[in-house]
Amino acid sequence: MIKGFIFDLDGVITDTAEYHYQAWKRLADKLKISLDREMNEQLKGISRMDSLDRILALGNQIESYSVEEKERLADEKNEDYKKLILDVTPADLLPGISDLLANLKAAGIRLALASASKNGPVIMEKLGIADLFDVVVDPAGLENGKPDPEIFIKGAEQLHLKPAECVGVEDAQAGIEAINAAGIFSVGVGTKEAMEKADYAVADTSKLKLTDILERANS
Ligand code: BG6
Ligand code: MG
């Protein structure tokens, strides 16, 4: 019986996945590394520093920067990203998310956020949904990022639920792998190819219907 939902944030609740891409793209261009949307699929769900490492590896520049220089580059991307999220409002909830969250609350289902983003709490406030969530897993306290299941296991634990009592919702391949490895029912948002490992996948958030999800997750 499903009693909790554990959500990713960027690309599921709001379209900040696009802003992450734009900010990384700007940095990659500056470093003369070509980053495209296909490569960006591999960055979704991945922590800030791991994303930078993947971009530098793409340009064969992984050995070119010291730890301090990499921290400066990651800060530069984050400052750009923070400018892009300045104007986020409740109108930026992706289609269907407001209804889904309301239906979940009405059904007494507990909610957790499992986002790798350190900007997550600020964005939740801007979207006006912070109060709906019972738990926000702190990404700073994680030993391993997605696709490791740690963040979803912690989400279930902090909700005081077993993995089998939870559903996880993700738009990233690494995120779906993390949910699956946690023993949680995975719901993917995205193309069939990108979401092929999800237990249940929909093309976009407007198709995330609570009754459809529960029917599958509870069976
Ligand atoms: C994830 C995003 O949610 O958070 C990644 O999918 C991002 O693209 C990661 O790199 C870390 O975010 P932040 O805001 O801490 O740099
Ligand atoms: Mg995401």
Automatic annotation (TrEMBL):
Swiss-Prot/TrEMBL site (Important for catalytic activity and assists the phosphoryl transfer reaction to Asp8 by balancing charge and orienting the reacting groups) positions: S115, K146
EC number: 5.4.2.6
Catalysed reactions, as listed in the record: beta-D-glucose 1-phosphate = beta-D-glucose 6-phosphate
Catalytic residue list: D8, D10
Main localization (coarse): cytoplasm
CC cofactor: Mg(2+)
Enzyme class, UniProt record, top EC level: isomerase
Co-factor binding details: Binds 2 magnesium ions per subunit.
InterPro entries linked: B-phosphoglucomutase_hydrolase (IPR010976), Beta-PGM (IPR010972), HAD-like_sf (IPR036412), HAD-like_SPP (IPR051806), HAD-SF_hydro_IA (IPR006439), HAD_sf (IPR023214), PGP-like_dom2 (IPR023198)
Gene Ontology CC: cytoplasm
Transmembrane segment boundaries: none
Subcellular location: Cytoplasm
Keywords: Carbohydrate metabolism, Cytoplasm, Isomerase, Magnesium, Metal-binding, Phosphoprotein
Binding residues annotated for substrate, in chain numbering: 8-10, 24, 43-48, 51, 77, 115-119, 146
One Pfam family per UniProt: Hydrolase
Residues that coordinate or bind Mg(2+): D8, D10, E170, D171
SUPFAM superfamilies in alphabetical order: HAD-like
GO molecular-function term, one example from the UniProt record: beta-phosphoglucomutase activity
Keyword rRNA processing: no
Family to which this protein belongs: Belongs to the HAD-like hydrolase superfamily. CbbY/CbbZ/Gph/YieH family.
PANTHER family in alphabetical order: FRUCTOSE-1-PHOSPHATE PHOSPHATASE (PTHR43481), GLYCEROL-1-PHOSPHATE PHOSPHOHYDROLASE 1-RELATED (PTHR43481:SF4)
Protein name: Beta-phosphoglucomutase
Organism of provenance: Carnobacterium alterfunditum
